[in-house]
């Protein structure tokens, strides 16, 4: 790569790692549900400017898509580990470009000029700048984890091949001997393909999590509507009861007892449905965060070993999502016609007729489409 091309790449990386709010390199980058990334400090300042309670949805500074803060705190937003890694890489390239022509590695004077793309020059550049080792500790840990690998117990060789037919890691000798005719490729290439699968899982999990947030908010809205309906019905019952003369006390007490029973049961059912949706949302967030951590910190070996479990768990949560229960209530009060009371009604004032509907999300979507 020529010096001009190298500069273009570095400039592009500098643009990618720049916060669109403060126009500086990201500091503690946090990723929003819309996939846009900002500095944690910038997001906090944005929250102050929008003058909204942290319990209410905020808007992304770029696309204006609303989002809610987990645990009502900016600190609970997911860290963008990929961006952190990209920033570290960009800093290395900037440092390498700056010092490649001026630093000698100690082996020969021409070392840096003839091998400026080699990692030795990067070390020389770090020494010339007076450090760099501390900020790269995390990178070293990932690098060591990736390079250590796992030895084949049968051939004492590195497991650097992935067998697609058997879905396992093998060494080159295993591929020739016990896996002849199977489709195999290097762990790095296989990990790249599996990474795309996990990225797809993340996108699906993210979508499900967003929909789950909407379900949680909808459950609370339905509960508030139900409380209002219950209150109005109660007022109607009392108003109707005023028209009744001598028998009102006994029948009113009976009716209010029935009403209280329905009220307790339905409010309890609403709370149970809400807790279930919140628990499901927590599972989605946990799996999504773990997938991101595998991609950002895991080695190719980790990706290959974990991809089946992650795929299976994602499918399980996806199936569970469409079985999520949705709470709704239909409540009405049937007034008594006084002239028919002795023949058709058991209560002088009326009867409670409350119907509660709990269905899965797939049924709800089908009804919406129809």
Q: Return the structural class.
A: mainly alpha
Order of helices and strands: HEEHEEHHHHEEHEHHHEHEH
Sheet-strand content, in percent, reads 5-15%
Mean pLDDT: 75
Q: What does the radius of gyration come to?
A: 32 Å
Q: In order across it, which strands form the biggest sheet?
A: 6-5-7
Question: Any idea what the shape is?
Answer: elongated
* Helical content class: 55-70%
Outline the low-pLDDT stretches: 103-148
Q: Give me the number of helical elements.
A: 12
Q: What kind of sheet is the major sheet?
A: 3 strands, antiparallel
Measure the end-to-end span.
59 Å
Question: How many runs of DSSP E, i.e. beta strands?
Answer: 9
What this model shows, in words?
Helix 8 packs antiparallel against helix 9, helix 8 (about 185-240) runs parallel beside helix 10 and helix 9 runs antiparallel to helix 10. By secondary structure, this protein is mainly alpha-helical. Helix content is about 60%, strand content about 10%. A three-stranded antiparallel β-sheet has the order 6-5-7. Strands 1-2 form a two-stranded antiparallel ribbon. It has a two-stranded antiparallel sheet with strand order 3-4. The chain starts with a helix and ends with a helix. Mean pLDDT is about 75; it is low at about 105-150.
